[in-house]
Structure formats: C-alpha cells, structure tokens
Amino acid sequence: MKFVAYERTLQGTGASRRLRVAGKVPGIVYGAGEAKMIELDHNALFHALKKEAFHSSLLDMEVAGKTEKVLLRDYQMHAYKPMVMHIDFQRVDETTRINKKVPLHFVNEENSPAVKTDKCLVNHVMAEVEINCLASQLPEFITVDLGELTKGQSLHVNDIKLPKGTKVVTHGKPNPVIAVATLPVAEEEVAAAAAPAPAPAPAKGKGKK
After folding, report:
1. Residue 61 and residue 140 share a domain
2. pLDDT per residue rounded down to tens, the chain (209 residues)
3. Are residues 123 and 83 in the same domain?
4. I need a surface site. Which of 34, 125, 145, 179 has the fewest CB within 10 A?
C-alpha cells in the first residue's frame, strides 16, 4: 500500500496548529537512520486509516520522489472531532525483525459442527495477535479456520497456522484462548432446568436408647 508524504521543516506547537488548519497532519519517521519530520494530507490519511492493511502491513511511503518502506507505529486522534492530530512511522528494511499486531480473520464458523449441528455461539476472544517476524514477511492478517470447531471446544493461539518465519508473542501467557464455542444462554438455562434434581439425603433419625 502506497501513500505520499511531504518533508516538514517547521516544528513546535504553533507550526503543527497551522498545519492542521491547512488540512495537513504533522508526523515523524524514525528508525534506520535520522528521524524525518513529515506532513500528510489529512483527508487522504483519514481514509487510509480506515483500511485494515494500513495498520498491519508494510507501506510504501513516497517523500520528495523517493520511496521507502515504513510501518505505522502510532497515531493520535482529536478527543472528540474526527481529526488526526499526529502520526508516527517506523522505517524498516527486509532484515528488520519486528513485533506487530495483526488482525485475525475467522472463516468457516457457520460450517463448523458447533454452529451447524449444535447451534452454538462462537465467541471471538481475541481480534488480533502480536507476532514477531521479518518486516518483509509481515502478513496483513492471519486466517483462523473454525470449520472443525465442536460444542464446548476452545481454540488456542497454538492452534493457529502461522506463515513461515512468524511466531506469536504472548508476553508470558501460556497458549491464550482465541475463540470458544458455547450454547446460547437460554439453552443452557433450559438444560439446567431439565436436569434431574439430586436425591435428598436420608434423614438421620434418633436411635433408641
């Protein structure tokens, strides 16, 4: 995905305020060399931020006729206006190893035994995972196939099929759950009500002296 940025020379709060009034967004590119101050067209950037790939893939940034590979690292929005206030990018190359959160795309949920046969609900516990990989191998998303999911089954991070050279970063959490199939609450309540009540314990009578 490609976008155009422009070199920025003026810094400071006043300069950034004037940029925003003019429909521009101040930003910075860092990593693999000197940091570079940039500005971007606000409307083009605002629409780009709505695209999933802009957040989770390697981007081609053109500045002054030269193109370099970058990753979106951070951006700030106005407290209540639909306005981008600032944006940060990281300059990378094919040898740069990165940690980056990528979205999970769940497929075949409706064809799983849990949903098709047992009418379960599938709770997507995680919508994204953090992965470690070379920048050149960064996937836009990771597909999670739910086609074999059964009633009561949980799918964990270790069950995900990852691209070659990619591993999930769990920050010490052992094999977190990413999805689980459960019965609808109403059905669980009906099942509990229909279950036979346990037999009462026999009363303890007083023995004859």
Report:
1. no
2. 889 999 887 777 877 888 888 899 999 999 877 888 999 999 999 999 999 999 988 899 998 889 999 999 999 999 999 999 999 999 988 788 899 999 999 999 999 999 999 999 999 999 999 999 998 888 999 999 999 999 999 999 999 999 888 999 988 888 999 999 998 875 555 555 555 656 566 655 555 54
3. no
4. 34
Domain coverage including residue 119: 98-191
Quote the number of domains for the chain.
2
Other Cβ atoms closer than 10 A to 73: 15
**Burial letters 28-44, b for 16+ CB under 10 A, else e:** bbebeeeebbbbbbbee
Listed residues 71, 93, 115: the one ending a domain: 93
Rounded-to-integer distance, Cα 49 and Cα 59, Å: 12
